[in-house]
Amino acid sequence: MYTTKEIAQITGGELVGGDVRITSVSTDTRTIEAGALFIAVKGERFDGSDFIETAAESGAAAAVSDREPGSINAKIPVIYVKDSRTAQLSLARDYRDRFSLKLCGVTGSVGKTSTKDMIYAVLSSKLKTLKTEGNFNNDIGLPRTLFGLNEELEAAVIEMGMDDRGQISKLSKAAHPDCAVITNIGYCHIENLKTQENILAAKLEILDGMDENAPLIVCGDDEFLRNITPEKTVGRRVIRYGFGNVCDVYADNVIHEENGERFTLNFGANSFEARVPAVGEHHILNALAAFGVGIEFGLTAEEIIPSFMNYESSGMRQKIEQRGEVTVILDCYNASPTSMESALKVLGSMNGGRKLAVLGDMLELGEHSRELHERLAELSDHADFFFLYGTEMTALRDALLKREIPVFHSENKQELTQLLLENIRRGDVVLFKGSRGMKMEEIADKIGK
Predict the structure, then answer these.
(1) pLDDT per position as a tens digit, 259-311
(2) In sequence order, what are the beta bridge partners of 24?
(3) How far apart are CA 411 and CA 416, in angstroms?
(4) Which residues, 6 or more positions from 28, have their beta carbon under 8 angstroms from its beta carbon?
(5) Is the confidence at residue 316, as pLDDT, over 70?
(6) What is the pLDDT of residue 449?
């Protein structure tokens, strides 16, 4: 893979110790393999440089550290750099550029992972494809994915997350995408970025690692993305998808089904009947984005359309389960105003008995939090009862009470769980949705037990 001298040259580091060859890369001593390079990164609660000796005992052949050169007494060579995370990104970029495969980068305020999974469903139907697993979409996780590239792969789809300016730029420069998708511009991380215009600018940093001829694929229904100008995209080609016929790829004739969505996909002068195996119109948008990527990567419409049905969601993202005589929609990975709207619309479209929305706080909304929680009351017609958990949900509770909508609220999870269990009936459809920190699955786990 690399020698330590090569790594020092790529990262601008200082090598102390011999020139040895490494065969893999890891930031976690628990996954160290013999011959690995251990990159000692700093986290909120730890400093990887404290574990270099442990890594060596586990088989690491060398390490990267951002401490003072020569300050670590290690039995293995150490490459000292200014910043370990930056060094890992530089090494990942060098490694990525060894391969001629096609790589798609995906970012956006919400829907990144489900869009990535749909793109993977399309590409993997014809091409040997790598995708970001789990939530490895930051400056530690993304390099980990890139180091998984090999000669057999023909494509990759890489998710990129952020919570502030400058982060997407670093990730894109490491991944070097051949095309990129931006799903939408919402309110996630507005606490840091203050305005949606700033969020748009942060997402557009994905262009920083792309060649001039690499296209940008965006949702044309999004008010911030539909009018992206050539100045903002450095004159590159922009492909828009959505429900409006002004988009390059658009859907119409939508039919909601119990286990998915059926629609007509329009591209150029051609129309195709299509279906996705997931409930909610946002999954149609994901499919349209994936169609655009597939076309750019050389697949035909006839190859792409059937592959939508290969889609499988990751983690706790809109999993629909039958728990005894109750239908549960488990959507607990994260929450924002946009994803809350999508989830409530899915709840409202479900067949069955009463619709119960069990919602937890949307976090990291800063000074906009009360307003954005109150605004969810405009979607109250999608549920018969609301069960609200958390401090921020007080605003939605008050707004629902003004509308005389049945609502239960508590800042105590155990109390809210008990209220739900006392009121649930056979045939009910129950949605669980909240920010990751609210751990709404802990309430959902009590259903059917």
Answers:
(1) 899 999 999 999 999 999 998 899 999 999 999 999 999 999 999 999 999 99
(2) 36
(3) 8
(4) none
(5) no
(6) 62
The whole-number pLDDT of residue 312 equals 87
Instruction: Provide Rg for the chain, Cα atoms.
Output: 24
222-to-52, 94, 108, 240, 300 alpha-carbon distances in Å: 47, 35, 11, 10, 26
Q: Residue 193 has what pLDDT? A: 86
Residue identified by tokens 């251990």 is 38
Which pLDDT does position 202 carry in this prediction? Answer: 95
End-to-end, the C-alpha distance of the chain in Å comes to 50
**What pairs with residue 38 in β-bridges?**
26, 63
User: Is beta strand 319-323 parallel, antiparallel or unpaired with respect to 326-331?
Assistant: antiparallel
Residue entry with tokens 């954005």: 372
User: How many angstroms separate the Cα of 199 from the Cα of each of 203, 207, 328, 352, 446?
Assistant: 6, 14, 33, 39, 37
Map 165-219 to HEC letters. CCHHHHHHHHHCCCEEEECCCCCCCHHHHCCHHHHHHHHHHHHHHCCCCCCEEEE
d(CA 15, CA 344): 55
Give the span between the Cα atoms of 234 and 388, in whole angstroms: 45
Q: Is the pLDDT of residue 43 over 90?
A: no
Task: Say if residues 300 and 105 touch (Cβ distance below 8 Å).
Answer: no
Structural contact between residues 14 and 137, judged by C-beta atoms closer than 8 angstroms: no
* Whole-angstrom distance, CA of residue 64 vs CA of residue 79: 5
- Please name which of 84, 98, 188, 94 lies closest in space to residue 139, comparing C-alpha atoms: 84
What separation in angstroms does the CA of 328 have from each of 114, 320, 426?
19, 6, 12
Angle at 263 between CA 262 and CA 265, to 5 degrees: 140
Closest among 361, 333, 358, 335 to 347, alpha carbons compared:
358
Contact at 8 Å (CB) between 149 and 95?
yes
Residue 422: how many CB atoms within 10 A of its CB?
A: 8
